[in-house]
């Protein structure tokens, strides 16, 4: 859609619910009399956090209608594959953040691809399990085909491994158990995954592993598309199954590739090595001659080594035959590791085990911030530095979570929150009730005098703008170190 004037753009932005009439009026009043252009209005709206930089770029190219898919407004592009693109989006009726998967335009003219996209999305919509990313809506907007799904703050396993290199045995086992539980549920409904890889496992802000793209990579769907990561994995599945004489969709194939994920989580080394050419993935020896995991790390517990070895057996009859059998052994291994997250572990871990586990886990930072650009900056920076980031735009919602699912750290951006920031900070300190949580209040420069009213402790800190993200991270790390030292005891006041 061509932008002919500022007034025309403003009308379209209100019509499509990018801004309210009052928000537009405030910006228009600021622009009046300056010979303003549509781009001037968009840049002002971006500075005021009403639109994102991605949206501005699309609108300037005349693609404003593309940003509206059903009841969702696209905000950022999160990723892209050979078959579809993934966006972060916002539901206009509820304000909920979701993920949107959009079929690439090159496949829109292929009725088979379109039908398969919708069929598999509808099937995925029926699966409701805590270890599977739920699909909400499946729809079409003109020649755009999409479905919406839960937006996971924590990113995928590949992103996590770039930061942490490898996981502790407890964390790797817990994540593998999560994935196996998702596979067990899906198999009970007649589904196999057929595209198990690091990027198809997302981690929630609480560290729960969730499988994504069930069915959307399997069967013949990707085999006739150009080479890409999903078609490469389809080739790996096909090579393994053909060479071992089992039919496509054998559930034991998923368990084999889940074993490869477990192997890499434990060691930081891919089970199959990196494929330089597509033809490398069709080599049977790649799957038959996996390097023993003990050759990489001889200190791994025997129970864990046995599980990995059984999952990666080339002979399908020697592998786990069902996810249920694998789950049983993973839970037994958890008991040996003293991991109380196993649902049938009767005893509590020792203080030493608890501290070791806490030191190894990703820390969760909950940020109270309602401005889109600042949200994006905080999320990107802290995710890059190994934190799970939970972003909320409402202070009261954040306070409500403290009694049920407290994070390791709560950051309150006072400029965003407004006049209730100081009271919220004090309420958070009260609600933590001695738990080892860090609370940081970031005050705008014009409220610096409020800092004198606050009792500062190692775990209750106040910063005054201007503050760099690095300074904020240093403050958080100092508080987390103090919280770990104090354990469950309350902070000592200055």
Automatic annotation (TrEMBL):
Residue span(s) of domain Protein kinase: 72-337
A GO term, aspect molecular function: ATP binding
Domain of life: Bacteria
SUPFAM superfamilies: CheY-like, Protein kinase-like (PK-like)
EC category name: transferase
Low complexity: bias regions: 339-350
GO cellular component: cytoplasm
UniProt name for this protein: Serine/threonine-protein kinase StkP
Lineage: Bacteria, Pseudomonadati, Planctomycetota, Planctomycetia, Planctomycetales
């Amino acid at each position: 859609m061509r932008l002919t004037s500022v007034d025309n753009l403003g009308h379209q932005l209100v019509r499509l619910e990018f801004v309210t009439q009052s928000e537009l009026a405030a910006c228009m009043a600021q622009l009046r009399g300056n010979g303003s252009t549509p781009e001037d209005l968009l840049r002002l709206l971006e500075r005021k956090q009403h639109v994102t930089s991605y949206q501005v770029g699309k609108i300037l190219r005349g693609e404003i209608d593309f940003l509206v898919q059903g009841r969702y407004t696209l905000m950022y592009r999160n990723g892209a594959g050979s078959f579809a693109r993934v966006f972060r989006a916002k539901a206009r009726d509820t304000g909920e953040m979701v993920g949107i998967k959009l079929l690439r335009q090159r496949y829109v003219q292929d009725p088979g691809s379109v039908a398969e996209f919708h069929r598999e999305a509808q099937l995925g919509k029926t699966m409701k399990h805590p270890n599977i990313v739920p699909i909400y809506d499946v729809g079409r907007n003109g020649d755009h085909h999409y479905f919406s799904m839960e937006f996971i703050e924590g990113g995928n396993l590949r992103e996590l491994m770039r930061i942490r290199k490898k996981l502790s045995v407890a964390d790797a086992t817990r994540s593998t158990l999560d994935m196996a539980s998702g596979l067990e549920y899906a198999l009970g409904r007649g589904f196999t995954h057929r595209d198990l890889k690091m990027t198809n496992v997302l981690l929630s802000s609480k560290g729960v592993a969730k499988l994504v793209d069930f069915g959307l990579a399997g069967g013949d769907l990707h085999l006739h598309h150009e080479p890409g990561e999903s078609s490469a994995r389809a080739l790996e599945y096909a090579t393994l199954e053909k060479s071992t004489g089992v039919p496509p969709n054998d559930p034991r194939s998923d368990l084999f590739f889940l074993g490869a994920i477990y192997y890499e989580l434990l060691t930081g080394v891919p089970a199959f090595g990196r494929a330089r050419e597509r033809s490398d993935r069709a080599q049977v020896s790649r799957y038959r001659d996996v390097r023993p995991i003990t050759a990489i790390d001889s200190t791994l517990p025997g129970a864990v080594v046995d599980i990995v070895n059984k999952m990666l057996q080339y002979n399908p009859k020697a592998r786990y035959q069902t996810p249920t059998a694998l789950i049983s052994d993973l839970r037994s291994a958890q008991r040996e590791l003293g991991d109380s997250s196993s649902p049938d572990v009767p005893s509590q871990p020792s203080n030493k085990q608890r501290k070791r586990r806490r030191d190894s886990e990703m820390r969760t930072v909950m940020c109270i911030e309602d401005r889109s650009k600042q949200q994006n900056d905080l999320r990107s920076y802290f995710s890059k530095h190994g934190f799970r980031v939970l972003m909320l735009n409402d202070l009261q919602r954040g306070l409500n979570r403290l009694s049920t699912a407290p994070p390791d750290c709560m950051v309150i951006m006072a400029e965003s929150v407004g006049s209730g920031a100081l009271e919220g900070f004090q309420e958070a300190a009260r609600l933590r009730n001695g738990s080892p949580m860090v609370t940081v209040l970031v005050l705008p420069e014009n409220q610096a005098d409020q800092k004198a009213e606050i009792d500062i402790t190692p775990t209750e800190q106040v910063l005054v703008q201007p503050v760099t993200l690095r300074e904020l991270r240093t403050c958080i790390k100092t508080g987390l170190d103090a919280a770990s030292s104090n354990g469950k005891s309350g902070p000592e006041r200055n």
